[in-house]
Structures are given as C-alpha cells and as structure tokens.
Amino acid sequence: MYKILIVEDDMAIAKSIKNCLSGWNYETEFITDFKDVIAEFIRFQPHLVLLDISLPFFNGYHWCSEIRKLSKVPIIFISSMSDSMNIIMAVNMGGDDFISKPFDLNILVAKVQALIRRTYSFGGTMDIIEHNGVVLNLNNATIEYENNKIELTKNEFKILQILLENVGKAIPRDVIMTRLWESDSYIDDNTLTVNVTRLRKKLSDAGICDFVKTKKGIGYVVE
C-alpha cells in the first residue's frame, strides 16, 4: 500500500483528501503540527507528499526544500496561489506537479495515481532509512542527526545500511562481508573490524552513542 502525506492546514480540505485517497486504498496521514513537518515525514516515510504553499510557521517552499535534502519522493503542490510565478517557484523548488485550488478530487486522484505509477513502476524504493532519529540517506551515503551531517565511506555506508534494514536482528560478520564483496569492495575480517570501528567513531562524534552494538560470537546489531 502506497503512503501519502498531506501537508495542508485547512483541516476540512485535509480530511476530505484523506477520505478520498483512503477509498482508493492509499494509506494517508495529514500534518497537525506544522512546526516540524520533517519529523513527521521521516516517521511516516510517505511515497508521495501533497503540499500546500501557505502554511503556519514555514511555507510549503521551505518544507519542499527540506524534503529534497533527504528524498526524491514525488511532491504535488496544492494551492490557491496558482499564478505563474508560484507554479514556476514550486517546480524550481523540487515539486513534480501543481494543482490549483479549488480542485476536483477526481483530478487529484488521477494525478496521484499517474505520479506514483511513473515513480514506482520499476520497483522504486524509499531514499532514506530512519531509526531513533538517525537518518541514513541512500542517495549520497550520509547520515543526518540533530542537524549534524556525517559523510560515510562506501564500506561504512553499506555496513550501516545492512544493519538498519534489519533493526533488532544480529547480522553475522560473514553475512556482512559477503554483502560487501557483492558490491565490489575488498574486505576481510580485519577490514570489517576497522570499518565498524571508524563508523562507531563517526557516530559517537555526532552524539550517536552505542548505536552499533556487538553480539559476541555472532556479529553486529542496531537495536
């Protein structure tokens, strides 16, 4: 089931969109706390965002820009501010489509379906993995945590990706090494230890302590 996040401060419109899209078997949520839209985006990990321009605290352009730092998820702007300048601004900020208010819900559904079909018909996946506030960006091999951005090496990135894809499950060292070999990275047991040590130091320096844990006799785990 595809997930859609509605960022709309008119609750009547937000609920109307939610009810309509739910009828088409989409999992939908709408924002109620407009101070930190990104926190909700990371938690929900939507496949598509419907975004108004005029919002409390920060406008839709701001949140579009913030989302684009993390993800290529499709964004449709929905706004009564539909003059050519705002439409151009929406596209330049990273929007994929624009719907003018007032709008027909059938047109909204058609645009949502078309954009999701184009984006995910070839097995597209999410661009980020989040756990306990730690965001791993799959596009550029970086971590973001409390406004800190951490650059990872290829091996560090793959190790953390494997662990975050299996939160709570201890991954054997040989499984991790095999995955790294498959990505054309030369790695043996000693090299794995060095890479995990470096990864832990980077995480610790950013305030992320005891994130990658050792399971004695098995391997590593993120809990």
TrEMBL record:
Residue list for modification 4-aspartylphosphate: D52
Superkingdom, taxonomy of origin: Bacteria
Segments forming domain OmpR/PhoB-type: 126-223
InterPro entries in alphabetical order: CheY-like_superfamily, OmpR/PhoB-type_DNA-bd, Sig_transdc_resp-reg_C-effctor, Sig_transdc_resp-reg_receiver, WalR-like, WH-like_DNA-bd_sf
Residue ranges constituting the Response regulatory domain according to the UniProt record: 3-116
GO CC, one annotated term: protein-DNA complex
Keywords of the record: DNA-binding, Phosphoprotein, Transcription, Transcription regulation
Free-text function comment from the UniProt entry: May play the central regulatory role in sporulation. It may be an element of the effector pathway responsible for the activation of sporulation genes in response to nutritional stress. Spo0A may act in concert with spo0H (a sigma factor) to control the expression of some genes that are critical to the sporulation process.
Protein name: Stage 0 sporulation protein A homolog
Organism, scientific name: Clostridium carboxidivorans P7
